[in-house]
Amino acid sequence: MNIQPEITYRGVEKTEAIDSLVNSKIVKLERFCDHINSCRVAIEKAHDHPSSGSPYRVRLDVTVSPSHELAVDRSPDTGTQYEPIEAVIRHAFDSMERQLKELNERQRGE
What we know:
There is one protein chain. The chain is α+β, with helices and mostly antiparallel strands. The protein has a single domain, classed as Ribosome hibernation promotion factor-like (Double Stranded RNA Binding Domain). The protein is 38% helix and 28% strand. The protein contains 2 helices and 4 strands. Helix 1 (16-32) packs parallel to helix 2 (85-109).
């Protein structure tokens, strides 16, 4: 991994499994874009007893050279089934992967 991620936990216990999942997803992002300068990940428990949706929220902020800032905010969706924290993390990183692919395509077209 070329970049040192900044991972923040709010209301969620930090575990080796979550850290490992996040770091493996960052390595995968670096395969799509080798110009990533920074990656900030915020994992939080939005509420303890949701009536529907997931109680977890994941936000990714990625800075890409020369001056691009990409962000993903995976928040609890109303009307959806409960999602474990690992699924919310995977969905957030999948969205960031799509944004990086689109950015790469735009940069090649410029």
